């Protein structure tokens, strides 16, 4: 049997990793400034993370949500404390797409309506409603296009007001920093205004924090830069540092009922342990503060490079915009400089999504390598 050929692959085969160093099958070392799409939040093979997972595996790795699992409540309590979102409830699942799918479904249940407002260059996953709310025709099958979704320009309050007041909108879904799209952000004024209009029109505001959450933006959640309160928050990526985990935070005014949502694997013992380990390291090593500080340092270093048109994003969710497409530059950085970086829907943007425990020295190494390939 062959693999279904849907991924264009670089000729690199990682076999081990530690911190921000990835080692391939030939013994070559690569520095990781991409974290597998912002997944590696506390570094590869962090000793506390490894110890916690090994210890849990010796006890129990999985049982269904039909029985008590105290690790889930421990995780909910720790997450509420560190994020400042104690007035939300937690539903655990397995991925960002599943988190957004459940968020959209819950919004429709809650309001009794069925249209979604999303934004140009947004990306919310590849499941049915989530992919319909993503601005990419190539990944929307005819089946997905049956969903009622209006994709509007970001930061255009006029078109937003027109659509939300039509009375059939159940949810607005928005990224605080667009990941796949290319690091564009809503302005604070726009985010606050859509939050107000959602409340006025009985529409659920979903903050997609799948990529920007868990400290990557320099605050626990990206929406916290804008002083708003979403009804639902979706999370995944950096939650489990590579273990598949997703979640939905649901504000207390949205009520639960038995059977409303469900999952087989979500919230299993290993997933909870992985996420608890991440939260413990984030707090103990002050990694969210580190992300904020290194984001500022990154911006200063980027300003020294004339080819960089602008730096986009916040914290350690960053993009460098050039006046050329970056695909060839990414190849050079991998094969010549042994650095992993990322691309975006905007082909002029180089995405930088390292673990939150990198150092100024790591950023210096990156920019020295970038200069070598640009000169």
Sum this structure up briefly.
This protein has 11 helices and 14 strands. The model has no long low-confidence stretch (mean pLDDT 97). The strands form 3 sheets. The protein has a 7-stranded mixed β-sheet with strand order 4-10-9-8-7-5-6, sandwiched between helices. A 4-stranded mixed β-sheet has the order 1-2-3-13.
Explain what you see.
- This protein is of the alpha/beta class.
- It has two domains: 14-46 and 286-374, Aspartate Aminotransferase, domain 1; 48-284, Type I PLP-dependent aspartate aminotransferase-like (Major domain) (Aspartate Aminotransferase, domain 2).
- Helices cover 34% and strands 18% of the residues.
- The strands form three sheets. A seven-stranded mixed beta sheet has the order 4-10-9-8-7-5-6, sandwiched between helices. A four-stranded mixed beta sheet has the order 1-2-3-13.
- Strand 2 (21-24) and strand 3 (29-32) form a beta hairpin.
- Helix 3 runs parallel beside helix 8, helix 6 packs parallel to helix 7 (188-200) and helix 9 packs parallel to helix 11.
- The protein is globular and about 55 Å long.
- The mean pLDDT is 97.
Class by alpha and beta content: alpha/beta
Report the span from N to C terminus: 45 Å
Using the CA coordinates, give the radius of gyration: 20 Å
Strand count, sense and barrel status of the largest sheet are: 7 strands, mixed
Strand % is: 15-25%
State the low-pLDDT regions, or none: none
What is the topological layout?
Blueprint: E1 14-18, E2 21-24, E3 29-32, H1 35-38, H2 47-57, H3 70-83, E4 88-93, H4 96-111, E5 115-119, H5 128-132, E6 148-152, H6 157-164, E7 169-175, H7 188-200, E8 204-208, E9 232-235, E10 246-251, H8 269-284, H9 287-302, E11 310-314, E12 317-321, H10 327-335, E13 339-340, E14 349-352, H11 360-374
